[in-house]
Amino acid sequence: MNESMKAKWTAPVMINNCEIHCPITCVTLGDISLDNDVKLIVATGGHRGLNMKLKVFKGVSPHSESSLADVPTAIVHFVNDFSSMPSIAVASGPALLIYKNLKPYYKFTVPTSPINPVEAQAWTAAQSDKISIEELYTVLNNLSSQISISNLSPLSQTLLLTPEKDRNAVVERYLHKQMSNSATITCVSKMVRSSADKIDVFLIGTEHSMVYLVDSQAYQIIGCCSVPSPPVTICPYGNYDVDFRLIVLTRDSCVYSIKRDQTEATKPIINSASMITSIIRINKMVVYTTADNTISFNTLKGKKINTIKCEQKVKMLEVFEYTQKQYTAVLAMFEKEVHMYNESYLLDVLKFDRQLAWIKYGGYGREEGALIICFKDGSVNVRMWRRLATFDEKMDFNPRPPAHSIKLAIPKKTKIFIDSTVREKDNAAKIHSAYYKDLLLLRCRIAEVFSELTQSASTVVSTDSSLPMELSADVDFRLIVLTRDSCVYSIKRDQTEATKPIINSASMIQLSMNSNQ
Amino acid sequence: MEASNEDEIIGVNSVENEESADINQEQKPEDSADNLNSSSASASHDRVSSAPRRIELLDCNSLNALMYHYFSQEEYAECKSLIGEVLSKYAGRNEFALNLRGCIARIEGELDEALDWFTQAYEQSGKNHRYFYELGRVNFLLGRHSIAVEQLEKAAKAMKHNSKVIYWLARAIYHLPPTKIKDKTINPVQMAAEVLKTSPALSSDVQLVGFLGKLLEELNDFGGAVAAYKKGIELQPDNTEMMIRLGLLYLRNSNVDDGFTMLGQCLAYDPTNTDAILAIGSIMQKHGDHDVALNKYRVASDVCDYNGHLWNNIGVGLMAREKMAAAHSALKKAAFINPLNYKISYNLAVLHDKMQLYASALHYMKQTVDLAPKNAKAIGALAVILSKLKDAKNARRSYQKSLETKKTRAVLMNFAIFEYHQGRMQDAWGYLQEFKSLKADRDEDGGNMNSTAEILEKVLASSLDKS
């Protein structure tokens, strides 16, 4: 890459004292204190369940943090009220935990899905003491072997997984409460309500294959739609009050487009043969990347515009939008590189010396156009988009030198080859007859020795099929050189001088013409 | 404090917990939030105060999203450890975790393990037939095709609209042994094609269409295969693989023009596609356009250096341009990559012959004959080289062997000339007559040989008359 390409981003600045290990879904950028200073917000500790924290970074240093009670699945920064502070929503389990100023503020739980009738009946019967706890357990256990335990309500799952001595306690505690079957949240994102007032609407996907639209002011469900498989990512287009499309990627690698008031999505707009690993919406394009290293650009209706075949695994995609120059592009993260593409060109390449974990693009501090780069080792860099950087320079997706500049890499011939060629040209018939004479002699000799061996030492040849003779061969590079005076020299690797011929008369001739030594 | 801490953890996942109004809000956001959540405030609670045990409502699906995230990022080590945790926490009853673990095992090539995981997932799912799809695919990879067919058929019934199931079913059927049913022989290729044709997804799924095209090609249904590939290109106009296959199919059916167009179209989409370059280069070389072909090969060799056929074609191209040393290097490289391809050693032999290195030419021609013992042309060429090495006895034997394998005009002609040089006019006359009785092939350079035959006939006639 030349200098002008490198200069698109400023030199990286490292955030001090920070080690972040979390999936990209638990990262967001936003202002949390009404001072128009955008901060980096992450929910960490997701995996091990230890040290679970909501951390905020301002500028190049940690700002504040707050502990979390449960494993976070995703977080989103949103605005629901202009007068008060922006909030953060942390999805964990079936609930969305709302934080204002890093203080817990509200908990929204996804509405319950229908409970299996047999299961509900069993619990009702247990409530009215018609069946005992043991019977309840048996009914639920049988049910779980008919339909999966994953399809039962959390309460029934708990009962089935509790050891026998604790079952009474579980039942007593929960028996007289209202049963609910709220599904775990799989993904959450936001969409503005209208372009006039930028208040957000939550988009929540659940394990029970539902997509909910939730008003962020009153926490009312304002829309829901079922999809055939649990959603992985929801990308909104448009705004709620006018018109919108939700581009939903599901676990079976299908992409659905959901309109307003649609309650069931059945026909995918994109059905990829290979697993879709990441999806984004940029302008009027849906861009996704698959497990076989391609990035596809599609219209909102799923029609393919272009495909990039990459040489490495594309880890994730991120939207690049620079409003001042109206630039939009796709940032594709690889193992140690970040490429910037639009639908027809490669625009920029960033290279790193360490493995990347995730990238996040957005405003940071008071600046627009920051790229937050998190490495596998937990360190985080920030780079800013240069104000003077342009997209004037464009490259093909997989830049290749033009045909005329490539040379065929034909191996050169050595002097030995030329010499032996000249010699063979002159004495072809002689070489041929000598070769055949010696081949015959060699065969004769082998036959002689073999018959001798079979008669004298029987151990050399295995007569027992269960104990086959073991043969091993050591292969090394060796050059057999026949000189004018009919001496054959054997030259080993790295040998610089051959003095003692191995054979004086040309008994076996092998012209080695492929040697490049 | 200890007890109150435990209280805090109670019902973290639950919707119905509301008994912890007294706790510190700083630490327990969702409990305080819960108070606002009116939906769950109605139930009365009777607390088991005697045993303040930690009772959490469990949902075995709670970490599925995270597991899927790691899986899609190909972070299998992380994913496996998370799955291990989930399985031990939920007593191995999370079907999604088991399914993902199976997928990882399959990707890592641990097929027996994968089979085990998928079977467990199937058991946990309440015998959901969807898992027969995964099981069938693993059995397919293990080469147990008949089991795979059974399982995939069940899966196809369970998932009627999934074209991937049909695809794998067809592939499994394709590999079945030909005689399967007692009364009549059933051609598995035919069967697989039938399965594909009856699938409703055929008109929209490129994978199915492409495989159908391949099957029809094998069934020698040229028209059908062309139609299938055309449909595939119509569905995905940038599918270069379809274009190559269609192009090669045209070439095989000696429709060079359409084949050339199709391959050219493929190169327009992907100028570095080595398959297309090789095919289109070979067409050019057939028409003697070696310079353009070599130009094309430059790109191909840059992308894919380790390709014997490519270097063979480069070698032939260089040979045609009389660059013998370079041609030799290229062909040697080709032979190094593909040592068992007789065409490469044949070309090497021809090259050595052209360079008057007859001993080496003989070596490579012998190799060719060893690799392709039924090739009369190679044996005939061997005879020519032997005669140049003045080994008349072996040369004659080779000629005879070649004619035994298959009578070709070129070999007969060479044999006649050889016998003439050896002074056996009568034999030469005989072979010449035989040569004349054979009809010329389509793509043979007849004129040159016929004129040689006439000259030889005249010479032989005069010398026979004398004797």
Describe this structure in words.
- The complex is a heterodimer of chains A (about 525) and B (about 475).
- With about 525 residues, chain A is α+β, with helices and mostly antiparallel strands.
- Helix content of chain A is about 15%, strand content about 35%.
- The longest helix of chain A has about 40 residues, at about 415-455.
- Chain A is extended, with a radius of gyration of 36 Å.
- With about 475 residues, chain B is mainly α.
- Among the domains of chain B are: about 190-195 and about 200-260, Serine Threonine Protein Phosphatase 5, Tetratricopeptide repeat; about 410-465, no CATH class.
- The longest helix of chain B is centred in the last third of the chain and has 21 residues, at about 445-465.
- Chain B is elongated.
- The interface between A and B is large, with 97 and 99 residues.
